[in-house]
Design goal:
Blueprint: E1 13-16, H1 28-31, E2 32-37, E3 49-54, E4 59-64, E5 68-71, H2 74-80
Antiparallel strand pairs: 1-2, 1-5, 2-3, 3-4
Length: about 90
């Protein structure tokens, strides 16, 4: 299984599940993650690694596909970026 959403998430904004980051960062604005690459981004691979960036601080790191909860809404994305749509 590549990711919980079973869709290609490359270049998309997603929300990480609660508990993936430390408890101080459980607010949704901290859990928005821009998926940039990795086998876990596409549904037809067996890998789960997703590499991306958190827009609120620009930190780049890896998560597992099963740690992704859902797609971020346009409103959530607007909280942490200048972008107005979820496709980046």
């Amino acid at each position: 299984m590549s990711n919980n959403l079973k869709e290609d998430i490359t270049g998309r904004y997603v929300v990480l599940a609660e508990g993936v980051l430390s408890p101080a960062y459980n607010d949704v604005k901290y859990r928005i993650f821009h998926a940039e690459g990795g086998f876990g981004c596409v549904p037809y691979t067996s890998g789960t690694a997703v590499v991306g960036t958190t827009p609120f601080d620009g930190e780049k790191f890896r998560v597992e596909g099963y740690e992704i909860e859902r797609f971020a809404t346009d409103e959530e994305i607007a909280l942490v970026t200048d972008k107005k749509d979820s496709h980046g």
